[in-house]
Design a protein that fits this description.
Strand order of the largest sheet: 6-7-8-15-12-9
Largest sheet: 6 strands, antiparallel, barrel
Number of strands: 23
CATH architecture of the largest domain: Roll
Strand content: 15-25%
Helix content: 25-40%
């Protein structure tokens, strides 16, 4: 079997990316300590609990890369793409270490689990890393990651305000007046977290995507009190039912992926029927928002790239920005053919919940905010290059939208900016400043004492002779001023400048359309605008 959750924790330790804290720590301090730390933290002695807590394991770009067994962040997208193309369905196993300790019915007590709070505004302890599996009698199996706010020792809510397949399952059960059984697996490898977090269409098994990421099938085991599987390698599994109460119970607030505190949510209740765990179980608290972000962004990359491929647009690079919470903003550089700036925008704006997309030429670095802003400043005409799509499907967690009643999907405006060079604009208008001799004149050499060899100076007669040589050179083809200086570098620059000045004085010097020196009246000479 490929790496387990515990194997990943051990690898983080070995790389100095996880620190063990053995001293007593108040559970109320965990979230802020993780926020301040540069590494993941493993709390061995949480006051009042018999179980350790680990948090922050994918809370940085580096640890996200490590979690997927990759060398670069881009490789995560490639690995996901391969998993989507070659999913490996999960398999059932008969035994599971998660069954070492089991409590059922009245013995269930969520308060014995070290479930931290995060923000000062939280509505209570929240299970943040629960991989939920549910089954609809007609629509099949669905897996996803949802939050559960603890209300009583055997009662929680489930945060499913956003339209998704789990909400659809719960709504169908609610309308039928029946509870919806769910299993909640806690303490899983990031392979399973990323697979379950992928927004797959109905009929696509998210755990098969996780299997594709792993390179082998995810192992599932059968729950005891409900007819559902759970992830066999989990640290803890909770067996529960979403009650047919509808979206009628207040809960929250929650810290969201937006880096903001969300408002009060209205959600169904969840009754806990059983809790099973390993004897030495480790509780994993996924820390919001960054542990959500680093593995969420590659799912957007893959979806955007697929949409642009369908549109026939050749992509150079994509940046789903952290400033856009890794959900709402994308910058895309393309190898543009005529009209493809707008086509790329239309394709990208159709992806998931993207709100704002900027498309740039392939000379723009999509990871350099100044470069992107420069493209917008120098290549965009607002009435021509800004596209607004109104009343597209929105996300209830978007704080720029007015609150919507439970069950109502808000609509949003999507904005696309075509910051590519427009058709009909000469490309030379966008030639960037590049400094002469940048390849050979290096500041470090001069700081170490390098000195240039002076060129020879010349008397007036020799300046005139040099001017004739320059005239012969530019008669063959236009030459930039700098190239003239390089071609005749045996002379001091002041001498070359005087020689060129002599050609101007004698009215034999001109420039072509690109600013290069040429002979006045020649076929290369620029024509004055009429």
């Amino acid at each position: 079997m490929t790496e387990s959750f515990r194997g990943f924790l051990d690898r983080l330790r070995q790389k100095g990316e996880l620190v063990d804290l053995h001293q007593a720590v108040d559970i109320r301090h965990i979230a802020t300590l993780v926020d301040q730390a540069q590494t993941a933290l493993y709390f061995h002695n949480v006051i009042g609990y018999d179980m350790p807590v680990v948090s922050g394991i994918i809370r940085s770009r580096e640890r996200a890369i490590m979690s997927m067994g990759c060398e670069t962040y881009r490789e995560i997208e490639d690995k996901l793409r391969n998993a989507l193309d070659h999913p490996i369905p999960p398999v059932m196993v008969k035994t599971s270490p998660t069954r070492e300790v089991t409590v059922i019915g009245d013995d269930v007590d969520l308060y014995k689990l070290p479930i931290p709070m995060c923000s000062v505004f939280d509505g209570g302890p929240v299970i943040t890393a629960g991989i939920v599996i549910a089954r609809d009698p007609e629509l099949g199996i669905n897996a996803g990651i949802y939050r559960f706010l603890v209300k009583e020792k055997n009662l929680t809510g489930i945060d499913i305000v956003t339209p998704n397949n789990m909400r659809l399952f719960a709504d169908r059960a609610f309308k039928a007046g029946k509870p919806l059984p769910i299993s909640i697996s806690i303490g899983n490898h990031p392979f399973e977290i990323m697979g379950a977090g992928y927004r797959a269409p109905l009929g696509v098994d998210e755990l098969a995507i996780a299997g594709g990421m792993r390179g082998e099938a995810v192992e599932l085991a059968q729950c005891q009190t409900i007819d559902l599987p759970y992830i066999a390698d989990s640290e803890i599994v909770i067996e529960a039912e979403i009650m047919p109460t509808g979206w009628t119970w207040p809960e929250g607030r929650f810290g969201e992926f937006t880096r903001l505190m969300g408002g009060l949510h209205w959600n169904p209740l969840v009754r806990i029927k059983a809790i099973s765990r390993r004897k030495d179980a480790v509780y994993y608290a996924l820390h919001m928002p960054w542990e959500n972000t680093w593995l969420a962004a590659p799912t957007r990359y893959a979806a955007i790239r697929a949409a642009l491929r369908t549109a026939g647009v050749q992509v150079k690079d994509i940046n789903v920005t952290l400033g856009g919470c890794a959900f709402w903003h994308a910058i895309i550089s393309i190898k543009k053919q005529a009209g493809e700036g707008k086509n790329a925008l239309l394709a990208a704006l159709s992806v998931m919940d993207l709100k704002h997309v900027v498309v740039v030429d392939d000379d723009i670095d999509v990871f350099n905010a100044n470069d992107v802003e420069w493209a917008i400043a120098t290549r965009v005409q607002g009435d021509r290059d800004i596209m607004i799509v109104t009343e597209a499907r929105g996300k209830p967690l978007d704080p720029s939208l007015p609150p919507t009643p439970p069950g109502i999907v808000p609509t949003t405006a999507k904005v696309g900016i075509d910051a590519t060079i427009s058709e009909g604009i000469p490309k030379e208008r966008f030639e960037r400043i590049s400094y002469a001799y940048a390849d050979t004149a290096k500041i470090d050499d001069y700081l170490k004492g390098k000195a240039d060899v002076p060129g020879k100076s010349a008397a007036d007669a020799e300046v005139v002779a040099l001017a004739e040589k320059i005239l012969s050179a530019i008669a063959e083809a236009p030459i930039y001023y700098t190239d003239i200086g390089e071609r005749f570098k045996t002379y001091a620059f002041a001498t070359v400048a005087r020689a060129i000045g002599h050609l101007h004085t004698t009215e034999r010097l001109w420039q072509d359309e690109r600013g290069r020196m040429c002979v006045r009246g020649s076929k290369f000479a620029a024509k004055a605008p009429s």
